[in-house]
Amino acid sequence: MRQLYPPIEPYRSGMLDVGDGHQVYWELCGNPQGKPAVFLHGGPGAGCSPAHRRLFDPARYNILLFDQRGCGRSTPHANLNANTTWHLVADMERLRMTIGAEQWLVFGGSWGSTLGLAYAQAHPDRVSALVMRGIFGMRKSEIDWFYQYGAHHIFPDTWEGFLAPIPEDERDDLVAAYHRRLTDADPEVRLTAARAWSAWEGSAIKLIPDPAYIESVTEEKFAIAFARIENHYMVNRGWLDEGQLYRDAGKLADIPGVIIHGRYDACTPVENAWLLHRVWPEADLHIVPDAGHAFDEPGNLHRLIEATDRFARD
């Protein structure tokens, strides 16, 4: 089984003023003369981690990672103003031009797959290859699966914690109910909702739940940005038409691609990857038989490293 490459540090980093009061943190790792690649983190609102640098051969890739608007090291923290899918697509283009890449490999998982598909469909000539994991197309049925019905049948115990901040008479639309609390004027109301929202996702992301991971995502600073930004995108359905990313997948026909999805992914069901492959048959599909949603589960990680190694050779 393939493993992460050894730890590396950025050779260059900075803050990019993208307008609207936002400063976006970015870093470059690996070989400055290598194949350009951009890593898109999940959430939205999760930010990048040092482990994400290690998904690429540092001798063969020039890897750009950035914290999307409002999260990680970007500022202002947890800000929802001018924070939409299309603002992030524009930020990616600014970053691509900043590093002088004509094309780059786009790598994204979970929400990162949503953003990666939106970017590639808007700028197909700028994408040399796509590596997409844990497909999330932002359809209403996909949002409802995780935040209204579906996944709670698998995790009824932790679902109770997700329901706890919401009165019974508001539970017919949990995303909207959380939105009211995550944007409440009272910081304690916001924090209680943010921790419950983040704990729910943290409990479902891995095939074998990881208590240390759940604890980390409920830390105050992370949880506030993650929950507020993710909920903001869900309540607005990503500023996408219903089914848009599947409908427009024909624009990807000339882009080499790999789709990787855990068979037992409770956050984003494998049906999403199957549907994407049907409308983008040129991509290779790998359904990992022993994995959930997280990128670092062994089966998912093996396929991801295989993919980045393949495109480094190509």
Mean pLDDT: 97
CATH architecture of the largest domain: 3-Layer(aba) Sandwich
The fold-level CATH name of the largest domain is Rossmann fold
Radius of gyration: 18 Å
Describe the structure.
It is a single chain. The protein is of the alpha/beta class and about 325 residues long. The protein folds into two domains: about 10-140 and about 240-314, Rossmann fold (3-Layer(aba) Sandwich), CATH 3.40.50.1820; about 140-240, no CATH class. It is about 40% helix and about 15% strand. The chain contains twelve helices and eight strands. The chain has helices at about 50-55, 85-100, 110-120, 140-145, 155-165, 175-180, 185-205, 210-215, 220-235, 245, 270-280, 300-314, and strands at about 10-20, 20-30, 35-40, 60-65, 105-110, 125-135, 255-260, 285-290. The chain has an eight-stranded mixed β-sheet with strand order 1-2-4-3-5-6-7-8, sandwiched between helices. The two termini are about 20 Å apart.
Task: Write a concise synopsis of the structure shown.
By secondary structure, this protein is of the alpha/beta class. Helix content is 40%, strand content 17%.
